[in-house]
Specification:
Layout lengths: L5 E4 L15 H14 L3 E5 L5 H13 L4 E7 L2 H11 L5 E8 L2 H8 L3 H18 L3 E6 L6 H13 L4 E6 L6 H14 L7 E6 L6 H10 L4 E4 L13 H10 L15 H12 L16 E2 L2 H9 L18 E2 L7 H10 L6 H17 L5 H8 L11 E8 L5 E9 L2 E10 L2 H13 L3 E10 L8 E9 L2 E9 L2 H28 L7
Parallel strand pairs: 1-2, 1-8, 2-3, 3-4, 4-5, 5-6, 6-7, 7-8, 9-10
Antiparallel strand pairs: 11-12, 12-13, 14-15, 15-16
Bound molecules: 3-methyl-2-oxobutanoic acid and zinc ion (ZN).
Length: 517
């Protein structure tokens, strides 16, 4: 039977150690609760000796999240170990994770100690940590560039002092999969006591091999992998949790291991993390990137529309993603175009579809992304000049270090004035939520960019917006010296198009003979 592997999530510790990834203790707690829902076994919550904030983050998580083991990092210093133990005090399951570098490069250049001193520090640190908890992990930092004999001596000492997990990190992402697997085999063979502990892999992605190395380590006997959501972390990041988990799910005959992670929580966790740190995975990121289940090429779209398996090895629902998306662009074919028109409520006959397709390919050559409103423009000349139904008559926003709140009034020729208030994570979010409430529409922001139109302190700002309103993708723009107002006006512009699109759709149902390009 495939072995069980412990999923050790270090998003809140190693993941946070990258420019722009800092998280407040409150954000860490929200993420820790979601990591609990995801089903990870261990949450490394932080490095308590590093800062007050880290200490508080670990302590709050230890007090509130009870199913997974909560781990805290410590150097081989009494002060660090004591700080970790104090912060972990409320935890139901706690682990102290001590580490020291074992490569000569790090010993000589960074720590300026010799090998004997290193061994003594390991001995003392593991012993001290064991005084606080029976669950102690020891990491030999830079293990993959360490002398093998010395590494084995250190590992043997850590186990003799009571370490229960031994981690062999590829700290600088230097190893190749076969080499990393060989390291695990060698350490297991030379240190027979490793049979009584859990061996762990911890890989960085400097050569893009972190996940491949983690899987190779599992194959060679590792029974814990350390990873982060979206692969965030120092420099090029850590091994991506979602990729390791899904490799095991999709290729169980080859990547033979089992784990407790619930894949359906993957997308939600990835999005929460992006939302908290404001950093999104690149569009082509496996499993969680915006394009992971998007198809633009005609041949692929045709295949996926017949049967998703043709071009998808993972059904998007399996990881809690909304579904495959058929994106219209210059490589798309008639099938996809026809399907989108049908979804928008139109039924073009064969010759109309042909005309539309010709116009569509000409447009797609010029435009990076085709929105529903472009399709409507091809169909109904002049669609862009949507009549004004909604008008923003009042906008008042308050914001500061906490939530922002907005108060809006929307009126217009076809719409009795309505007011609404809403809060949001920032003034634009609050204004959008209030406008959505006032007009009773479901609005999803796809893209928002801000441009400065005129130079100087009172410069005019322009907001360009792409939104999905009740399922239709539309754009809007607005300008003002106040950027929040510009955003609100852009949204109202898009709402007017949505209303116009609805009107045209209704008319087309009663006049289905009318088609014009
Ligand atoms: O990359 C590394 O070596 C680490 C250790 C502290 C485990 O993050
Ligand atoms: Zn690391």
């Amino acid at each position: 039977m495939a072995p069980d592997v412990v999923i050790f999530d270090t998003t809140l510790r190693d993941g946070e150690q990258a420019p722009g990834n800092a998280m407040s203790p409150e954000a860490k707690l929200r993420l820790a609760r979601q990591l609990d829902a995801l089903g990870v076994d261990v949450i490394e919550a932080g490095f308590p000796a590093a800062s007050q904030g880290d200490w508080r983050g670990v302590q709050q998580i230890a007090a509130a999240v009870h199913r997974p083991t909560i781990a805290a990092l410590a150097r081989c210093h009494d002060r660090d170990i004591d700080a970790a133990a104090e912060a972990l005090q409320p935890a139901q399951r706690k682990r102290i994770h001590v580490f020291i570098a074992t490569s000569d490069l790090h010993l000589e250049q960074k720590l300026r100690i010799d090998r004997a001193t290193c061994i003594e520090r390991v001995r003392a640190a593991v012993r001290r940590a064991r005084g606080y908890t029976g669950d102690v992990e020891f990491s030999a930092e830079d293990a993959t560039r360490s002398d093998l004999d010395f590494l084995c001596s250190v590992v043997a000492v850590a186990i003799a002092e009571g370490a229960t997990t031994i981690n062999l990190p590829d700290t600088v992402g230097y190893a190749m999969p076969a080499e990393y697997a060989a390291l695990f085999r060698a350490v297991r063979e030379r240190v027979p006591e490793t049979a009584n502990v859990v061996l762990s892999a911890h890989c960085h992605d400097d050569l893009g091999l972190a996940v491949a190395n983690s899987l190779a380590a599992i194959d060679a006997g590792a029974r814990q992998v350390e990873c982060t959501v979206n692969g965030i972390g120092e420099r090029a990041g850590n091994a991506a949790l979602e990729e390791i988990v899904m490799a095991g799910r999709v290729r169980p005959q080859v990547a033979q291991f089992r784990c407790q992670v619930n894949p359906r929580e993957i997308t939600r966790t990835s999005r929460l993390l992006s939302h908290e740190i404001g950093v999104f995975p690149q569009p082509n990121k496996a499993i969680v990137g915006r394009n992971a289940f998007a198809h633009e090429a005609g041949i692929h779209q045709h295949g996926v529309l017949q049967n998703g398996l043709t071009y998808e090895i993972i059904a998007p629902e399996t990881v809690g993603a909304g579904g495959s998306s058929i994106v219209l662009g210059k490589h798309s074919g008639r099938h996809a175009l026809e399907r989108r028109y049908r979804q928008l409520g139109y039924e073009p006959d064969a010759s109309t579809l042909e005309q539309l397709y010709e116009a569509f390919t000409a447009l797609a050559d010029k435009k990076r992304q085709i929105l529903d409103e472009d399709l409507l423009t091809l169909l109904h000349d002049g669609f862009h000049h949507a009549p004004e139904v909604y008008n923003l008559t009042h906008l008042q926003v308050t914001c500061g270090t906490k939530m922002a709140a907005a108060d809006v009034r929307v009126a217009g020729p076809g719409f009795d004035e309505r007011s609404a208030t809403a809060t949001g994570n920032g003034p634009i979010a609050a204004a959008f939520a209030a406008i959505a409430e006032a007009v009773g529409r479901t609005i999803e922001v796809l893209d928002l960019s801000i441009q400065s139109v005129t130079p100087g302190r009172d410069s005019l700002g322009r907001v360009l917006l792409q939104v999905r309103i009740d399922g239709k993708s539309l754009s809007g723009h607005g300008a003002s010296t106040d950027i929040v107002e510009a955003g609100a006006r852009a949204l109202v512009h898009a709402l007017n198009k949505a209303d116009h699109a609805d009107g045209l759709e209704t008319a087309s149902l009663s006049n289905s003979y009318f088609w014009g390009v």
